[in-house]
Amino acid sequence: MTNRLKTLETKMRKDFDSLGIQWPIKEVYFRSFKYDGQLEVWVRDSDTMPFKLYKTYKVCAMAGSMGPKRVEGDFQVPEGFYYISEFNPRSEYHLSLKLNYPNESDRVLSDQVSPGGRIYIHGSCVTVGCIPLRDEQIEEVYLIAASARRYGQNYIPVHIFPVRFNNKKSLQYLYKSSKEDLELQRFEVGIKEAYDYFNENKKIPLIGINQKGDYMVLN
């Protein structure tokens, strides 16, 4: 694996040179879209620069439906604002990056006894509620995240949205899925603010959580 990753790093260095981004990566931001089945990787050299899109990966297996994860065993992929809490180079799913689910919002709104856990971005292309990629893709994602962590980015955000809110087909699906669920509609409107902020500014929104567990954009 070590030699393989070294070869991959050489290739990726050339990719980033073409973007005008220095390797090793200093800062990375991940966005995932459940219905669209995509994981975006955004990078930048410093916190004074806007993020640039490096690559969009296809999420290769799906579980659950629209809406956040609320209980252990519901097979839902979470929706909301997370960060990478653990790197596992010896994962049974090739490589894996653990997310900090349940976060502060989830602890308010999810099952108080058994909200679930063990949510990862990982390889092996299987899932019961995670974000799976093909092995060669997770190698790239893992290498980028590890580079950013090694060079000082302790907080690596992963924002998970139900859909691409600027895609008409995706919005129609979200509307059909939530039209009889007012609580879900309210939740999705709240996280859309963060989606819109990043799309407009190419900077990560500052997210707050109120006592009810609602997300708020504080920028």
Automatic annotation (TrEMBL):
CDD domains: YkuD_like (cd16913)
Any Pfam family matching the protein: YkuD
A GO BP annotation: peptidoglycan biosynthetic process
Gene Ontology MF terms: carboxypeptidase activity; transferase activity
Entry keyword annotation includes Cell wall biogenesis/degradation: yes
Pathway it works in: Cell wall biogenesis; peptidoglycan biosynthesis
UniProt KW Glycoprotein keyword: no
Keywords assigned by UniProt, alphabetized: Cell shape, Cell wall biogenesis/degradation, Peptidoglycan synthesis, Transferase
Family, as annotated: Belongs to the YkuD family.
Name of this protein: L,D-transpeptidase family protein
